[in-house]
Each structure stands twice: as structure tokens, then as C-alpha cells.
Amino acid sequence: MDDYQRARIFRTYLLSHSADPNADVRDNIKDIMAASGMTQTELARKRGMTRQGINDVLIGKHVPVAKSLVPLAEVLGVDVCDLLAVRRPAGTQDEYA
Asked: Is the pTM of this model over 0.70?
């Protein structure tokens, strides 16, 4: 299974199991950027986007499609699964675990 197929599968899972699945992706991108010290401007330049385009993703104005998550993950130096990781409230379990 390639990264694009994995991204589509995870995206489908997120859409069906989270009240706001895009919030998880946004938060994960923000956390990864903060951990690496990468700015919106730097990420935009490396990804070939505008800083406003990155900002639109981070504030929820734009939702990245699955195929755009793979190059974004590559620029951030993480696996696409790290962008799609679902955050669960404390004390809850994954029904598939």
C-alpha cells in the first residue's frame, strides 16, 4: 500500500470517527512545526505554497486533500500517518484496539 492509499484510508476513518477530523490534522501539523521550529513561511516555501495558504490550512479555512498530505509530510520530515493521528480524549479507548 503506498502513501496515497494510506492517506485516503486514514482520511476516511477520520471523517467517520471524529466530530472535527480536520482539527486533528491541523493540531498535528502545528505540533510538528513547533517541534521542528519551522515557521509558516518556511513550510510554505518548501512546500511550494504561499504563507497564506499554509495559514488557511492551520486555521481551518482550507482542508487539505489526501494527496496533498503526503508531500506536506515529506517537507515536515514525518510519515503521513503522523499528520493523520487521531487525538483521543483522556480515558477513552479506540474501538478497534
From this structure: no
